[in-house]
Amino acid sequence: MDETSLPETAVVIVAAGRGSRVESSDRAADATPKQYRLLAGRPVLERSIEVFAAHPAIGRIVTVIGEEDGPRAQALRCDPERVTFVMGRASRQASVLAGLRALEPVPPANVLIHDGARPLVASATIDAVVDALNNHIGAIPLLPVTDTIKRTDAGQVTGTLDRDALGAAQTPQGFRFADILNAHGRAGQSGKTGFTDDAAIAAWDGLEIAALPGDVNNIKLTVADDFARAEQILRGGRALETRTGQGFDVHRFVPGDAVILGGVTIPHDAALSGHSDADVLLHAITDAILGAIGDGDIGTHFPPSDDAWKGADSAVFLADAMARLAARGGSVMLIDATVMCETPKIGPWREAIRARIAGITGVAGERISVKATTTERLGFTGRGEGIAVMALATVQLPAPEDRP
Q1: Do residues 229 and 361 both lie within one domain?
Q2: What is the pLDDT of residues 342-358, one digit of tens each?
Q3: How far is CA 361 from the centre of its chain?
Q4: Same structural domain for residues 114 and 216?
Q5: CB of 266 within 8 A of CB of 344?
Q6: For residues 278 and 271, what is the distance between their CA atoms, to the nearest angstrom?
Q7: What is the pLDDT of residues 289-340, one digit of tens each?
Q8: Other CB atoms within 10 Å distance of the CB of residue 318
Q9: Are residues 253 and 379 in the same domain?
Q10: Tally of structural domains, the chain
Q11: Do 125 and 18 fall within a single domain?
Q12: CA-based nearest residue to 368, from 334, 399, 340, 318
């Protein structure tokens, strides 16, 4: 696509942070940054990009990502001709500058700078910021402060601020491109750091910024409860129903030197037999999700008679089940699986398995349970002939009367 034919407003979406305030009870098993976690079945950052890609006033989209997040970013559904990924820096300020520098070879007239963790920005908000740049160097949306704000010092109240003169800043924040690029450059050269948004850098550089009405639904996903609120906004207050699906699978041992369980290769004195990679754990979880939405099983969608799936990575099956759930407006609340075998020992691999399942599904690690048990040497698993897995998946879906 010819960049010069695109609209004169570009956007820099900042998504290089690690989301440390969205805490899980088990960070070791849940290392997914908040911008890649699922919101109503789709990654947060994918939703943020989509809003701008669909807006007629927006041309190029530069998305600044973390150094470790290349594979996650490449997995997002977006137009590669419109969206460029740039590696972030150690601070937000430096990351924004990296995004602006990426636009510099073919500079747009205006640029919007947006937090990737604000996926619910309305088209009307983008309209307002873009329109304001016809008459102003910069413009930002602000929400009025309704609470009384106190100044404190050493645990003591020392004063009350005039809330009529205060506003809570949101994004996108819009600027004339050359002006904000120069302001960022001067701030970096001067060693000034600690700016919490781009309007602060613009003000420090003497630029006048117009204040626009903000949107109460344009929330930044900062703590865990924000995800629940965002999902409620997305479904427009529609009622939800909870469903539980069950999955069960068995694979026998054959000669080999490793088994694949939960997407993790575990050294062993045998392998598992199957048309795909024989990942009995992912198969059971996939069937549990499909069962919860009443959409058949793995064999329905990936028949073993089809050579296309011979030796396939079972992550493909689980990702497909998650996509089917998302298409129905649903999300996973819990995955609970029990692996039944005498060997190999699952304990040493448990956290790696949970992390891999979290990576495939986008489900927080605290919502994924993987347990292991023997059958006291009874039955085929007790005789060491194979591995069986029982899995349950609890999901939420829009109630039938509200479902599109």
Answers
A1: no
A2: 999 999 999 999 999 99
A3: 10
A4: yes
A5: yes
A6: 9
A7: 999 999 999 999 999 889 999 999 999 999 999 999 988 888 899 999 999 9
A8: 26
A9: yes
A10: 2
A11: yes
A12: 334
Task: Specify whether 173 is located in the same domain as 89.
Answer: yes
Q: Quote the domain boundaries for residue 279.
A: 240-402
DSSP class of residue 5? G
pLDDT at 401: 58
Cα separation, 203 vs 198, in Å, equals 9
Q: Measured in Å, how far apart are the chain's first and last C-alpha atoms?
A: 35
Cα 78 to Cα 210, 218, 324: the distances in Å are 31, 21, 19
Task: Please report which confidence band the pLDDT of residue 3 belongs to, taking 50, 70 and 90 as the band edges.
Answer: low
Angle, in degrees to the nearest 10, between helices 92-103 and 177-190: 140
Residue with tokens 């990936």: 302
The CATH number covering residue 53 comes to 3.90.550.10
> Last residue of a domain, which of 234, 261, 289?
234
Same domain, 216 and 271: no
Say yes or no: 50 and 151 in one domain.
yes
Tens of pLDDT along 117-162? 999 999 999 999 999 999 999 999 999 988 999 999 999 999 999 9
| Residue at which a domain ends, from 218, 234, 250 | 234
Q: What's the length of the chain?
A: 404
pLDDT at 366: 84
pLDDT of residue 26 exceeding 50, the answer is no
- Please provide the DSSP assignment of 270-324 as one string: SEE--SSS--HHHHHHHHHHHHHTT---HHHHS-TT-GGGTT--THHHHHHHHHH
